[in-house]
Design goal:
The complex is a heterotrimer of chains A (535), B (167) and C (489). Chain A contains 20 helices and 16 strands. Chain A is an alpha/beta fold and 535 residues long. Chain B is elongated and about 65 Å long. Chain B is built from one helix and 16 strands. With 167 residues, chain B is mainly β. In chain C, helix 5 links the parallel strand 4 and strand 5. Chain C is globular. The chains are: A alpha/beta (535), B mainly beta (167), C alpha+beta (489). At the B-C interface, strand 1, strand 2, strand 4, strand 5 and strand 6 of B face helix 9, strand 17, helix 13, strand 23 and helix 14 of C. Chain B: Pfam families: Biotin_lipoyl. Chain B: InterPro entries: Biotin_Carboxyl_Carrier/Decarb (IPR050709), Biotin_lipoyl (IPR000089), Single_hybrid_motif (IPR011053). Chain B: This is Lipoyl-binding domain-containing protein.
């Protein structure tokens, strides 16, 4: 395999300007993540202390094997929602190692609104369990939730992907033979009560943990019966009377020790075997990514420069290097695993779509996982291209992306717009994981373009009523539209809404992908199978 | 959750991780790599640590690991997290006076039912040619005396159980 | 040489000394018999002896102190002689008489000599009246009512001791006269329990003298020789830990003077077996401390430098033979050190330790007098001494190096010992230079404390690698995740 010869000039003005800009973006990301993880009102920390509860981060630290990685997902979920008052959507989700097993950790963060479930909390939990299902990862639930946030129940209760989906997904996991263990570290009420109940194993912490469908106030209101939480559904009752729980723990750490012991006994099916050799670091330093990603999102850059800083030895075996050059395809290795890379080097044309569709089928037949690196403004438009059938060629690409059986991973490196978002394995196409870079933008069309269209529409409405707008008035309409559009196509908005699995500092991408790739191989890869290609 | 070994009453947390060459040992404030152990017989082996080889004699007796390295002997106790965390937080544990060292009972100065305060002499023991007085750790009532005069006991044996007044 | 008048010897002792006596009996072609308590069934002496006879009692120690059972065992073994070893009944004149009365030869001095030297006050008076130096002293029974005030008048520091005592039992140092009364009470209580004799005396306590003792050997015909001195100053709580000979503290002239004094004391006492005269040495002055009418624990160092088997000489003396050598035949050759291995934790105030001997390996090229074997339980029932390591080399420095190597090579797993302390002492500068005294360990507490964390990582590494859950958890982590380590995004 040939090594990519980087053309980046690290001493150039442009490189240094980009570097400064992207390092600032990375620093901003780290700061926002730090706040979402640790910044809590003193009264909430004090409450945990009073309740003899550990902070969720400490619980997870104790749960995980020391000296192993933890890939946290959707750290900034809900960062643009609920006035920013529900950091992380009051949930911590990630892939970690417990007793040597790759597991999904799902933890309620009771330092945020007592761990209450908001609509985006439910979305994050459902997504965590979808990941568990797609990748057959066992789940450890750390339950400490005050119940659903009732004022917003309409947004998380009744629909297909609302809270019921959590319980449905748990059941599906169990049916698939993927085990779960729940530690009850707080009160699990109503639907929350079923989380431990639907886990193969559950452990209740004496004194703080309790499971019941209706808590003491509900019981009192319904039947007048006066009963304490521990009496109603505490560790002793459930482990010795009802049989709802399996293990009685005297402390949170005791419960975690039991859970680790339980996970150590999980059956470990052999992972899917794909082509793998000994790993090799890239020949170029990952931190050079900061100088390559352009400060101006519209500026073009060569995606091979990115690939050179992600893959083993910076070696890349390019497929059809001379044909349809706006889509770069080729083979590389990531921590030794062979992957097929599909990356944008400009707008998608009909031939780019054909090249991509062919390459994806090769990878699918070859059991080679796919990595999509997005920087796409969409498909080319115009009479000439329509006449050549760009839509039917685009459909071929979308068909292969939708149908490929190998695991897919998508990184939104810069722009992600229009049908390009879809054809490059966007969220809707079930890649195993989607990650964004902090500079990235995702929307139906670019912000400038969209603002132009929207301003034009508005101007036309006014014109119909006989008005005519001055340049100043047009700008007055355009600016707020542009501002809102930018806000809603930012990486922070996307991650707030769980359109991705989290924003990555670009230098972390290689490792995050390795962890994701390894996790994905817990599920078998089906034989390739496709629908009807429009020829 | 780290592993823990107790040596002379002090807990040492550590973690071992595999690497391409042997293992890495993660201690509280340092990482030593590579480390490896080759067993030569049931009770001897070679420890390789940071490039040096040390002959080790060892006996594993349950949770106790007895080691002889470079002329020094130490006994380390592996702390099973399940047991260790379960034992903590037990508020119902009765008050007891334990033997600070192995020895023999010389004279018992209290009887069951006696009310004692912290510091009251409970018994005199003899160990290492010296007499030592076992005193009550707290205020309470003598519930049970576990040894008789002239009886020998081991280190940490429960000598007297006390109960708290009003319990 | 005429045949010995007995062919079987009963050993009324246990541990390393019983095993050591068996070795000489074998060498002399005599049958060995040991009386043992059940708890000692799995010890070297019992497995080595030609005959082992079980005795019993309320406590293990009580059985070894039961004169009736011991004599019955000697009868049963048809023993013509009895060796009492050290400690236990070895300095009990009544026992020696009872043995002699049954027609069994007691391997030791005459009961009257035991009696004389066994009573520390009588012994002091005897020595003083024969013109030898003793430390100032007040004796309780001279006037019990004024004992405390007379002791007080002598001034601090002083030492309160049981008249019938030995081996440091019941001794109390008083540096603050306010604590004198309490020390007297405690010493009295311990004396009563250990020796059945609560009488006390108090003597001037020399701060930091050396403990020098002289091995003597006498026969029925009144011949007395010395076998040079032993330096026994490395002590803790009056318990010797390391002994050596020659003493690094003695000039030729002083050595000759102290050895000669010992011979004259023994001769005055009509001494007819192996015995030891103990002195305290302060500067160039020495004072009689006491005389031990038995074999000493530390006798092997004397054997190493003189080539004399002291147990054999004891047996010959008891058989009435004349000494086979004169003073000029006894030559001191090289230097010998004995290290006492105790079941105790110097790091925790010398607290006794217990356990099962799971692995026992002794170093090569040195003499080991061992009272333990693999599989044996170390209990608190007896004195905590387990074994002695004795080295012999041409010079003191070579001996010290050899001792250091030997104690580090010794492997005893399953019961904590003082081996680390021994290794620290023999590599300590003061010890190497020969500059020490009876307060040496007390003044250098770092020796007992040890370096807590030294080399800890090697122990933790070995323990980690030998503990299945630790190793399993390392092996369980996928290679990729191990390589990534503690990565966070």
């Amino acid at each position: 395999m040939q090594r990519i010869g980087s053309a980046a000039d690290v001493d150039s003005q442009e490189f240094r300007r980009n570097d400064l800009h992207n390092r600032q973006l990375a620093a901003e990301l780290k700061e926002r993540q730090r706040l979402a993880r640790f910044d809590r009102p003193e009264k909430d920390i004090e409450r945990l202390r009073r309740q003899n509860k550990l902070f969720v981060r400490n619980r997870i630290a104790a749960l995980l094997d020391p000296e192993t990685p933890f890939l946290e997902l959707s750290t900034l979920a809900a960062n643009k929602a609920y006035n920013g008052e529900v950091p992380g959507a009051a949930q911590v989700v990630g892939i970690g190692i417990v007793a040597g097993r790759e597991v999904i950790v799902h933890a309620d963060d009771s330092s945020v609104k007592s761990g209450a479930w908001y609509p985006l909390s439910v979305k994050k939990i459902v997504r965590a369990l979808d990941i568990a299902i797609e990748n057959r990862l066992p789940v450890v639930h750390l339950c400490d939730c005050a119940g659903g946030f009732l004022p917003l129940q309409a947004e998380f209760f009744a629909d297909r992907y609302h809270a019921g989906r959590i319980l449905r997904n748990q059941s599906i996991l169990s049916r698939m033979g993927v085990p779960q263990v729940a530690i009850v570290m707080g009160q699990c009420t109503a639907a929350g009560a079923y989380v431990p109940a639907l886990s193969e194993y559950n452990i209740v912490v004496e004194g703080t943990g309790a499971i019941f469908l209706g808590g003491p106030p509900v019981v009192k209101a319904a039947t007048g019966e006066q009963v304490s939480a521990q009496e109603l559904g505490g560790a002793l009752m459930h482990t010795s009377v009802s049989g709802t729980s399996d293990y009685f723990a005297t402390s949170e750490l005791h419960a975690i020790a039991i859970a680790r012991n339980v996970v150590a006994r999980f059956h470990q099916p052999a992972k899917t075997c794909i082509d793998r050799v000994a790993p090799e670091p890239p020949a170029y330093d990952a931190s050079e990514l900061y100088g390559i990603i352009p400060e101006d999102a519209r500026a073009q850059f060569d995606m091979r420069e990115i690939i050179a800083r992600l893959v083993d030895g910076s070696r890349f075996d390019e497929y059809q290097p001379r044909y349809a050059t706006s889509l770069v395809c080729g083979f590389a290795r990531l921590y030794g695993y062979q992957v097929g890379i599909v990356a944008n080097n400009g707008v998608l044309f009909g031939d780019s779509a054909l090249k991509g569709a062919h390459f994806i089928q090769i990878c699918d037949k070859n059991r080679t996982p796919l990595l999509f690196l997005q920087n796409v403004t969409g498909f080319m438009v115009g009479r000439e291209y329509e006449r050549r059938g760009i839509t039917k060629d685009g459909a071929k690409l979308i068909m292969t992306v939708s149908s490929a059986s190998v695991p897919k991973f998508t990184i939104i490196c810069n722009s992600s717009h229009g049908a390009g978002t879809y054809a490059m394995s966007g969220r809707a196409f079930d890649p195993r994981f989607v990650f964004s870079w902090p500079n990235s933008q995702i929307s139906a069309m670019g912000a400038e373009q969209a603002a132009g269209v929207l301003t034009h529409v508005k101007a036309r409405q006014l014109a119909r009523n006989g008005g005519r707008l001055s340049e100043q008035e047009l700008a007055g309409i355009r600016e707020p539209v542009l501002e809102e559009y930018r806000e809603r196509s930012s990486a922070y908005y996307a991650t707030s809404e769980l359109w991705d699995d989290g924003i990555l500092d670009p230098v972390d991408t290689r490792t995050a992908l390795a962890i994701a790739l390894s996790a994905s191989l817990n599920a078998p890869i089906d034989a390739p199978q496709y629908g009807v290609f429009r020829m | 959750m780290y592993h823990s070994f107790e040596v002379d009453g002090v807990d040492h947390t550590l973690w071992l991780s595999a690497s391409r060459h042997g293992y890495r040992l993660h201690l509280r404030d340092e990482v030593i790599a590579p480390v490896a152990f080759t067993e030569r017989s049931d009770s001897s082996g070679i420890l390789t640590i940071a490039g040096q080889s040390e002959p080790v004699r060892f006996v594993i007796d349950g949770e106790l690991i007895h080691l002889h390295i470079r002329g020094r002997t130490r006994t380390l106790r592996y702390i099973d997290p399940l047991g260790a965390y379960a034992a903590g937080n037990d508020g119902t544990c009765p008050l007891v006076a334990r033997a600070p060292m192995p020895g023999r009972v010389v004279a018992i100065t209290v009887s069951p039912g006696d009310s004692v305060s912290a510091g009251t002499a409970l018994m005199m023991i003899e160990s290492m040619k010296l007499e030592t007085i076992i005193r009550s750790p707290q205020d309470g009532i003598v519930e049970r005396i576990h040894v008789k005069e002239n009886e020998s006991f081991e280190h940490d044996a429960v000598l007297v159980t006390l109960s708290k007044e009003g319990f | 040489m005429p045949q010995l008048p007995f062919d079987t010897v009963l050993i009324a002792n246990r541990g390393e000394i019983a095993a050591r006596i068996v070795k000489t009996l074998r060498k002399l072609g005599l049958r060995s018999a040991v009386a043992y308590h059940e708890i000692d069934a799995r010890t070297p002496a019992v497995s080595m002896a030609d005959l082992a006879i079980q005795i019993s009692g309320n406590t293990p120690i009580a059985s070894y102190l039961d004169t009736r059972q011991i004599i019955a065992a000697a009868d049963q073994a048809r023993a013509g002689a009895l060796h009492p070893g050290y400690g236990l009944l070895s300095e009990n004149a009544e026992f020696a008489r009872a043995v002699t009365d049954t027609g069994i030869a007691f391997i030791g001095p005459l009961p009257d000599t035991i009696e004389l030297m066994g009573d520390k006050i009588r012994a002091r008076n005897f020595v003083q009246s024969n013109g030898f130096p003793v430390t100032p002293c007040v004796i309780e029974e001279d006037d019990p009512a004024t004992f405390a005030s007379r002791a007080q008048a002598m001034g601090a520091p002083l030492l309160v001791k049981p008249s019938a005592g030995g081996g440091g039992k019941g001794m109390r140092i008083v540096r603050d006269l306010n604590t004198l009364e309490a020390a007297i009470e405690q010493a009295r209580s311990e004396a009563g329990r250990y020796f059945g004799d609560a009488r006390l005396y108090a003597e001037r306590h020399l701060e930091y003298p050396r403990h020098i003792e002289v091995q003597v050997l006498g026969d029925r015909l009144g011949n007395v020789v010395h076998l040079y001195e032993r330096e026994c100053s490395v002590q803790r709580r009056f318990q010797k830990i390391i002994e050596e000979t020659p003493s690094p503290a003695l000039s030729q002239e002083l050595r000759a003077r102290i050895c000669d004094t010992a011979v004259r004391i023994a001769r005055a006492a009509n001494y007819r077996n192996a015995g030891t005269v103990e002195f305290l040495l302060s500067g160039d002055d020495f004072y009689f401390l006491e005389m031990n009418t038995r074999l000493q624990v530390e006798h092997p160092v004397t054997e190493m430098i003189t080539g004399v088997d002291l147990v054999a000489e004891q047996i010959y003396a008891a058989a009435g033979r004349e000494l086979a050598f004169s003073q000029s035949d006894i030559v001191s050759n090289g230097h010998a050190i004995e290290l006492r291995l105790y079941a105790e934790a110097p790091e925790r105030g010398y607290a006794p330790t217990t356990g099962k001997v799971l692995l026992l390996e002794y170093p090569n090229d040195v003499r080991i007098d061992s009272g333990i074997m693999q599989g044996q339980h170390i209990t608190p029932a007896f004195d905590p001494m387990l074994a002695k390591i004795i080295v012999h080399s041409p010079s003191r420095m070579e001996s010290v190096l050899k001792a250091h190597r030997a104690v580090r090579e010794l492997v005893l797993l399953g019961c904590e010992t003082n081996a680390n302390l021994l290794a620290r002492i023999v590599s300590d500068e003061a010890f190497l230079g020969g500059h020490f005294h009876v307060g040496y360990l007390e003044q250098n507490p770092h020796l007992a404390a040890g370096n807590f964390s030294a080399g800890m990582s090697a122990f933790l590494a070995s323990a980690a690698l030998l503990t299945r859950p630790v190793r399993d958890s390392a092996d369980a982590v996928p290679e990729l995740h191990s390589a990534l380590g503690n990565w966070r995004n």
